[in-house]
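I had to read the description of the data format several times before I understood it. Each protein is reduced to its one-letter sequence and a matching series of backbone shape codes. The format is easy to grasp once an entry is in front of the reader. For illustration, here is how one protein appears when written out as sequence plus structure tokens:
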Amino acid sequence: MSEAALADLQQRLQRLEDIQAIQALKAEYLRACDRKQADAMRQCFVAHGAVIEADGFPPFTDREDWVATFTRLAVENPAIQDMHHGHNPQISITSPDSATGLWDLEFCQINMKERSIVNLSGQYTDEYERVNGRWQIRSMRFQRGSFVMRQIDEHGFEKLLALGQPPASGFIENS
């Protein structure tokens, strides 16, 4: 094998390893959300200057503010059970230490106190940076697509509370 062919093969292998590492990073983030692991979530983002934007929330320019909001709304609220399912990743390596990604999200939230269930979908648009050999999220923007909110009464009957858009109050992001 020529040196050029070997270099090309090494480059292609590195690209695949980087894509796999970024997919593992996103899975780590989503799992930390579901398991209410604020410290694990924090480690997914660059230490300084992370940009986090999500429909229904103010923009965040620091991971600590995002983690504090997550802690207040989810970690400290035992009635909330979240399920984040990320899929259909499209990862593009833009330089040896940067990448972009698009992800679809299916989300379900059960609020045991309010007896409500929220299902929503949307898309993450992410930027990643390799810091000290580890991929981290530089920016994460989430745009909501569909939204359905139901309430279950004491007899098990469902009532539709919102369709298409979240209600003005009663959903965790606007609590």
Summary: The two ends are 62 Å apart (CA to CA).
